[in-house]
Specification:
single chain, Polyamine Oxidase, Chain A, domain 2, 3 domains, 8-stranded mixed sheet, 17 helices, 23% strand, globular, oxidoreductase activity
Amino acid sequence: MSFNSVDNDKGSIVILGAGPAGLAAALELDKADRKFVIIEKNEVVGGLSRTLQYGEFKTDIGPHRFFSQNSYLYNLIESLLGEKWVKVNRLTRFYIKGKFFLYPIELKDALKQVGFFQSVKIIYDFIIEKIKKIINKKEPLSFEEKVISDFGRTLAEMNMLNYTEKIWGLPCSQISVDWSKQRIKGLSLFEVLKKIFIGNKKEGPKSLVEQFYYPDSGNSLIYESIGQKIVISGKNVLNFNSYPLKILNDGKNITEVLLRKEGEGEQFYKVESIISTMPIVDFVKLLEPRAPDNILAAAENLKFRSHISLFIILNKPSAFPDQWLYFPDKEVPFGRIMEPKNFSKKMSPLNKTSLLIEFFCWENDKIWNADKTELFSLSLPVLEKLGFCKKSEVIDYYIHKEKYAYPVYDLAYKVNLQKIKDYLNQFKNLQCIGRAGSFRYNNQDHALEMGILAARSIMENKRYNIEEVGAEQAYFERGNLKDNKFKS
């Protein structure tokens, strides 16, 4: 497509980013014959949900699977993928102090693994915390307080606190209680015990997605299918290797975007409406006239955690049965491993497999600046110890870095984010959506829903409350399979 192939005299709907949220908005607009321009920094669609390819081997950037409480999304993706959407039986475990534990937790398995005395200590700590809660009637202020209150200190320190600190690089006492609301909402030792001894007649957190759906050749297939529909329609422009340099405004609306496309120079796009999925902290910094100092300071104080993938190709048919494994222990340098072949056999050739090892870091810290050989050397002893592979079985390895992977929910994030949102609300034709755009750690189904509602807000000339998407106080991993959804 030509860089200048759109008539922009009257202004366009501009979409910043071709990840799940941006593409969902684009597809909805395309169906309604609305013209738009997509500006995407990468050379492919999908954002953090895209699939990487190394020769015959494919991997997503971390484990992606589809489940949702929204039937419209199931119908949408099924219409895009058809038979290329497969059902997968989920197996996920934690590796803690030399033992594997099922996730979600199953009491019989957990008690067997930790032994009698540790089991007594877990239950004793839990009872003590429940007594404290009744006496003090104090609401938890941090993630640490919340998890200890719900699970007791012993169980919390075995798993949730260690792993959370590994992801965020912060003590759990400095992480907002908001992080617990949708990641462990409704889960507690009490619920686990009740399920064992009383049973569980209602649909609840037990529906921790024992099965999920997955595109048979990688998660990118969803977004490539949307991108192809947009290109085939021929009405709109999808600019790759492009990024905004300036975002002009008149105090009431965003008026123009100055775009640079690699190899083709700069161009202004007049803006009718704009949907931004780029990191909200960067969006604010590109505004002209310049945003006030207190808004720029708030943007500086919002942090993103970065992510590095170490992708290892192995000359063996399988490494382990799980789709992915968690590693909370501080002694293990990485946080998670996935085997793409366990999502779909098409991710690796016959008799070979691959592993994706995930490191959580800060931009420009020691891990971020390490090269692939250093990260491989850090990882190999653990892989060999666990029997996942031998050095002689390693064919090759690669690394991939993402600067803006996870919005950090520290204790001050909500105040800083609200300042920015209040300021941006003056621009009536602007919607900030998606994980980075809304600074919300959500799943891809929420990002898709945000995009659809953003498009409909433009088409119907009314504002849907996109803030409500993924904000319900319900466990994020509760979902419904499309063929038995919404029974409750």
